[in-house]
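User: Can you recover a sequence for this backbone? Please restate the input before giving your answer.

Assistant: Of course. Working from this structure:
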């Protein structure tokens, strides 16, 4: 790791567990807490033990241990001997004692209950480093455990990545109990005159009867507007207490210390796959209609569906891939939460559906719900480089599944399957459809053309909501109609969630539960989605790609936030409307998923990876 400041070098071994930037934030807390705890002093002569020779010199002692050189004063200058004895200047041999191994031990029990969730655990982490190094310097054993854990599983004896991971996951909704503390005292034999045993947690630990005789470190967060501090009160069992006030690190650093302080950037060695294992280059990606899966389209024509990780530490299962048969061209893809990957392809003049529609043929005819002409249309293969359309799934009043196709020819189509012959037909439902998604288990879409209803002469964008027995149409009051659905945690539109619709070039309207607001920006920028970011979770806006094709922004009605600057040009980018995730694909083929709520990279796939 990077060379630490001289004041932190005593803890270099322990701090090497963490990335350099976290070690430099954690180091000052370690130094201040170490000064408050003090060193683990060895037992004095009064403590007894088996004699084991001498250990240096001392200014006090019996005269049978007086140095031989001091006796010369009695012969040469008796008055000087008396003076040196009166002023404590004589030198004596200091006896050494062999200490019982069981008595030289430091024990720490950490509270992981509701009082210590969040920022206080940063102080817990620093205290573990301090106590570990303190015991090591005194030649003592070190044991530590989470107070709410099972004493039968034993305590940890070191502070390493292996032992810290269970502590990171140990969060309990129940405060510590006297029965659990008593069980730990029995398991660690703390009732036999504990020399250096510490309880780390809230001040309420002092009320537990079994806490008697144990040292305590009380950690609390300062509750004051605009203040980010911790108070740490060190209360040794046999010495006066000391207090330390710690300023918390920046929010993003605090999150890393609480969630994954051990994670270090890894530079993986380049792996050249064998021809039989090589993965076709990625051509395009998109989010599924429910926004919870990533659909991957590769140059060999295959389609994959990948789960979106919830954190950088999550294990991402291998994407499920489907290779169409020779002669089949993919028209649309989708993911159903209880049905998996579904693909619509065309082969010659026939449609092929990969995946079975659920339900029976009984119920209200789809024609009465969507008002389409009963003539199947022919969809031509997509243009080279274009992504397949989006398949959306909904249910009618009888539980039968309806499948809709959007993103092809700016229209919305109904995909029907003859239950007896498995023949697939496609019917035109609406024209001028600019966006479609599944929101709250309903299909919603935005279209430029008004619904086909007698006497309806309104123009501009409309919102269509597919119910179980009809399609509701709501005017949006925007003239253009280009639209994006997005993610907003609260205050979203009751039917569409977060919705942005273009009114005219450079002017968009943002629809929330409290009405619509306008966003204006340069027409040189490209809109790629709508949502929020970590810097402004309650200020939604448009995700836009700057004209340099590398800088991504969030532009809200009131402000502008820079999300990231990529190392290469962005070929394609879009945001999920079901979770705070933004994805982009670079010119070199690298795919990146970013966490908009907490910042940082969720997933990254280099060219050729599966």
């Amino acid at each position: 790791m990077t060379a630490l400041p001289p004041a932190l070098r005593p803890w270099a071994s322990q701090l090497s567990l963490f990335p350099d930037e976290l070690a430099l934030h954690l180091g000052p807390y370690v130094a201040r807490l170490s000064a408050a705890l003090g060193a683990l002093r060895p037992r004095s002569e009064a403590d007894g033990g088996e004699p084991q020779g001498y250990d240096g010199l001392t200014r006090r002692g019996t005269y049978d241990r007086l140095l031989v050189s001091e006796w010369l004063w009695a012969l040469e200058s008796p008055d000087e001997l008396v003076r040196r004895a009166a002023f404590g200047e004589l030198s004596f041999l200091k006896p050494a004692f062999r200490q019982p191994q069981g008595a030289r031990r430091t024990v720490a029990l950490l509270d992981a209950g509701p009082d210590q969730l969040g920022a206080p655990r940063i102080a817990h982490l620093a205290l573990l480093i301090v106590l570990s190094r303190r015991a090591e310097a005194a030649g003592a054993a070190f044991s530590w455990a989470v107070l709410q854990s099972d004493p039968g599983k034993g305590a940890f004896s070191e502070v390493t990545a292996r032992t810290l991971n269970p502590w990171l996951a140990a969060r309990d909704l129940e405060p510590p109990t006297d029965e659990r503390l008593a069980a730990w005292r029995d398991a660690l034999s703390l009732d036999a005159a504990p020399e250096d045993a510490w309880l780390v947690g809230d001040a309420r630990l002092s009320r537990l009867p079994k806490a008697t005789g144990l040292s305590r470190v009380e950690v609390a967060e300062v509750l004051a507007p605009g203040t980010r501090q911790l108070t740490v009160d060190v209360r040794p069992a046999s010495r006066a207490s000391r207090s330390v006030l710690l300023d918390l690190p920046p929010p993003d650093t605090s999150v890393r210390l609480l969630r994954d302080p051990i994670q270090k950037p890894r530079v993986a060695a380049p792996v050249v796959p064998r021809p039989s294992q090589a993965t076709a280059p990625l051509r395009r990606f998109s989010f599924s209609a429910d926004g919870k899966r990533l659909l991957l389209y590769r140059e060999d024509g295959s389609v994959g569906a990948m789960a979106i990780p919830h954190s950088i530490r999550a294990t991402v299962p291998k994407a499920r891939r489907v290779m169409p048969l020779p002669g089949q061209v993919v028209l649309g893809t989708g993911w159903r939460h209880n049905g998996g990957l579904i693909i619509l392809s065309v082969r010659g003049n026939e449609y092929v559906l990969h995946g079975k529609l659920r339900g029976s043929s009984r119920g209200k005819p789809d024609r009465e719900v969507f008002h389409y002409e009963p003539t199947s249309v022919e969809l031509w293969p997509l243009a080279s480089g274009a992504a397949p359309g989006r398949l959306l799934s909904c249910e009618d009043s009888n539980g039968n599944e309806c499948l809709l196709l959007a993103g092809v020819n700016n229209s919305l189509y109904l995909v029907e399957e003859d239950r007896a012959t498995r023949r697939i037909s496609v019917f035109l439902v609406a024209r001028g459809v600019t966006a479609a998604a599944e929101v709250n288990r309903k299909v919603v879409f935005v279209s430029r053309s008004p619904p086909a209803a007698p006497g309806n002469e309104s123009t501009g964008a409309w919102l269509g909501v597919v119910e179980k027995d009809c399609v509701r149409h709501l005017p949006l009051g925007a003239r253009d109609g280009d639209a994006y659905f997005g993610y907003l945690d609260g205050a979203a539109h009751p039917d569409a969630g977060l919705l942005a619709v273009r009114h005219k070039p450079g002017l968009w309207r943002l629809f929330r539960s409290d009405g619509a607001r306008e966003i204006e920006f340069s027409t040189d920028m490209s809109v790629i989605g709508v949502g929020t970011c970590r810097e402004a979770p309650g200020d939604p806006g448009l995700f836009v790609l700057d004209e340099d094709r590398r800088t991504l922004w969030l532009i809200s009605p009131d402000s502008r936030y820079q999300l990231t600057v990529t190392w290469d040009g962005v070929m394609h980018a879009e945001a999920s409307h079901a979770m705070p995730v933004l994805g982009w694909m670079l010119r070199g083929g690298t795919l990146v998923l970013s966490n908009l709520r907490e910042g940082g990279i969720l997933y990254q796939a280099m060219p050729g990876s599966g």
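That completes the design. The longest strand covers residues 536-545.
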